[in-house]
Amino acid sequence: MIDKHRHLWPGVPLALGSAVLFGASAPLSKLLLGSIDPWLLAGVLYVGAGLGLAAVSWGRRLIGLPNVEAPLQKADIPWLVLVVLFGGVLGPLLLMLGLSRTSASSGSLLLNLEGLATMGIAWLVFRENVDRRLLLGAMAILAGAAVLSWNGETLHLDIGGLLIAAACLSWGIDNNLTRKLSSADPVQIAMIKGLVAGTTNLVLAIMFGASLPNATLVWAGSLVGFLGVGVSLVMFMLGLRHLGAARTGAYFSLAPFIGAILGVLIFGDAVTVQLVAAGVLMGIGLWLHLAEHHDHEHTHEALEHDHLHVHDAHHQHIHDGPFTEPHSHWHRHAPLRHRHAHYPDLHHRHSHD
């Protein structure tokens, strides 16, 4: 049984953990929305994420803990710029503009398009393997999210709805481009994204008339941002490393359900038929994904890259002198052909007939 399901670890727990933290940030942010402008809060959340991860990085160095993750390379910079642009600047900006021009019900439903955009781009553009079971599971999870956010009103595809759909497309692009960076240090990437995107949103919010709240609210928003955006993003990128964009995005689509459950616990919201139906649909989708067993003979072409690893079946290179594991360094993979269960991780992005 361990051999059959070992490919689920650690990618699936990381993706689910990311969804839990991000989902928890929604009801916690709701507690602050009465006192902080929504756009300004978005900036505070992202800046809090960036500063919190910077503190983690600096603290690690101060106590002498080595950073075993691979650093960003020059070749990563264009991808990083695009990730910050689409995921940190355009996505939130389009969302805010859209929410101001459409109903809350339409906005909530349309936000579920992010999961579809992520999977569609991964499948059609980056050629990730997406089989029938994965599609059915993702559709069940997304259907659960749609049921959860539906309040009986008509969905309006007005200019606001189109802007929200564009925001979801931006985040779908962001999620897939982030996969290109998944071999590098996720803390470094999330820190840069948080600081740049958060500062941009703060400046724009103040330019459009938002006023800064008191220090207590800023600290509270920063803490929510550190956990719900920063740590969640780090776990999401680690999930991408092991699962690929389509599967990580599908697991992440559970976040609205997590937020709804916490809403029941924090605000005393009623346990509705919608919540139960969404839970059933998402549970079916989660089971379909966990039961996926993609196993076939496949060929690894020669490859050179740098990332955190241990000496397993895919890493059989030699070292000059002693070393500890895990570690990161530039290494070469010789051609290899074998068979085992796998996801489209760093070493399994081959094509399928």
From TrEMBL:
Location(s), subcellular: Cell membrane
Topological relation to the membrane, as annotated: Multi-pass membrane protein
The keyword Hydrolase is annotated on this UniProt entry: no
Top-level taxonomic group: Bacteria
Entry keyword set: Cell membrane, Membrane, Transmembrane, Transmembrane helix
Annotated GO CC locations: plasma membrane
Predominant localisation class: membrane
TM region positions: 12-33, 39-58, 79-97, 109-126, 133-150, 156-173, 194-212, 218-238, 250-267, 273-290
Residue span, EamA domain: 10-149, 159-288
Stated name of the protein: DMT family transporter
Organism of provenance: Rhizobium leguminosarum
